[in-house]
Amino acid sequence: MPWVSDKRKIWTMKGKLLGLIAVFGAAVALRGASPVLLGSDVLAARAFVYLADKRVGLLTNPSGVNRNGRTTIDLLHKAPEVNLVALFGAEHGVYGDIPAGKEFPNSTDRKTGLPVFSLYGPGPVREPTPKMLRTIDVLVYDLQDTGARSYTYISTMGKAMAECGRAGVDFMVLDRPNPLGGVRVEGPHYHPRFRSLVGYWPIPYVYGMTSGELARMIKGERMNEHTCRLIVVPMSGWRRSMVWKDTGLKWVPTSPNVPYGRSPMFQVATGMLGEIGGVDIGIHTARPFEYVAVDWLKAEETARTLNGLRLPGVWFHSSKIVSQRKASRGRIVPSLEIVFKDPARAPLTVLNYYLLDALKRVNGRDLFQAALQRGKDWRMFDKVNGTDATRRDLQAGRSIESIAKGWETEVNAFKERRKKYLIYPM
C-alpha cells in the first residue's frame, strides 16, 4: 500500500504493516465486514512514521476516528512516537456540536489540556494564522467529508494547505471514504465570482474524490497561491465503487445535521432547497434533509407529479410530520418523503430543482419570490450552487433536464483532469 507525497514518490510498506493488514483483513472478513483500513489505521500500523521528532497539530472533530472508533486525538495524544501539541477545529468545532455557521473562539481541550485553535472563529478566521502555525511542524487533517462541494471541511482543508505552504509547515491527510463513492460526479461547476467557504474549489458540486485525492488535485493544479509539502496516507481496501454502507465502518456524525451514513445523500438532494427557506426539510430533527414539509403542501398530488417523472432509483410518497418551522412549530403538517430505492442510480443534485419546480407547478408557490417577500435574498442559494445561472434558468422556466445536460461538458472535463490524482481503483 503506497503513501503518496507531493513529489509523487511511492513507498511500499513492508514487514509489520503488511502483516498487520493481512491479519486484520482476515479477521474482519470472518466477521463479514469489508476490510477497509482508514488513513489513521495505516498510520498507526506504520508506527507513525514521518511524525517522529515533529511537533504535530491535528485538524479534526469526532468524525476523525479509526476503524475501531478510537478518535485520532486519543490515538496521537497517547502514541509515544508522536508529540501532539495543538488541535484545530473547522466549522462545528473539535467536538462537532456547534451549529452550522456559528463562530467559536480558541479554547483549551478539556481532555488533553492542548490548545484548540478555531478555524471558524470571529474576525472572521477561516484558516490557520502564522501565530497558530508557529507552534507546529506538520498539520494532520482527519475529518470525514460528505462528498459535496458546499460542505465546508474541504474548503478549510485547502485553505489550511495554503497557509501551511506559506509558513513552511507540512500538511498530512489521513484519508477517509467519500460516502457518496468515487464514481458519482454531477452538479454545477462554480464561477469564481461566487467563491466562498461553501464553494471554494473549481469542481462539480458532487466531485467523487476522497479528501486525500482532492488535496493532491488542489496542489497539483496549483489552486492555491502557496503550495505546501503534502503527504497523503491512503486507505487500504477502499474502492471507488463503494458508498458508505459498503465500507463496514460505523458512521460518526460529521456535524449536527449529518447524523447517519445516508445523510450526505439526502443533504445533496435537498440542501440547496433549504437555502431558500419557506419549507421544512427536517433540520434539527432526527431525519434532516429527508423530507419537505409545509402546511400548504398538496403532498399526494406533488408525490404523484414527481413519481410521474420516473426518475431512476428514487420515489416520493406523502405523509405527515410535526412541523419544526417557526410559523407552524408543533402542528402536524403534510410532508413529502424521499425514498432512495437504488441510491447508485438516483439523481441527487437535480432533486432540489425538481422539488422547487413541483412546489411551484402543483402548489402555486414560487419559493424564490416568497423569499423576497420575507425579506430574504437568494445569495446563499447561489453560493451553494457556485453560480447564479441555475437560479436564473429556473426562474426563466428552462427545463431541469436541459439544466443538468448543461453540466456535461464541464463534468467530463473535470473527470479527465482528476485522473492523475486518483489513488483508488474501481
Report the strand count. Answer: 12
Radius of gyration: 22 Å
Indicate the low-confidence ranges by residue numbers.
7-33
Tell me the name of the CATH class of the largest domain.
Answer: Alpha Beta
* Mean pLDDT over the full residue set: 91
Domain count: 2
What is the percent of helical residues? 25-40%
CATH topology of the largest domain: Rossmann fold
Order of helices and strands: EEHHEHEEEHEHEHEHEHEEHHHHHH
What portion of the residues fall into strands of 2 or more residues?
5-15%
Oligomer: single chain
In whole angstroms, the N-to-C terminal distance is 16 Å
Strand order of the largest sheet: 2-1-9-8-7-3-4-6-5
Shape: globular
CATH 2nd-level architecture of the largest domain: 3-Layer(aba) Sandwich
SS summary, helix count: 14
Question: What is the name of the CATH superfamily of the largest domain?
Answer: Uncharacterised protein PF07075, DUF1343
The biggest beta sheet is recorded as: 9 strands, mixed
Written description of the protein model:
It contains 14 helices and twelve strands. The protein is an alpha/beta fold and 426 residues long. It has two domains: 2-255 and 415-421, Uncharacterised protein PF07075, DUF1343 (Rossmann fold, 3-Layer(aba) Sandwich), CATH 3.40.50.12170; 263-395, Aspartate Aminotransferase, domain 1 (Alpha-Beta Complex). The strands form two sheets. A nine-stranded mixed β-sheet has the order 2-1-9-8-7-3-4-6-5, sandwiched between helices. Helix 5 (153-167) crosses helix 6, helix 7 (263-276) packs across helix 9 (349-363) and helix 8 (299-307) packs across helix 9 (349-363). It is globular.
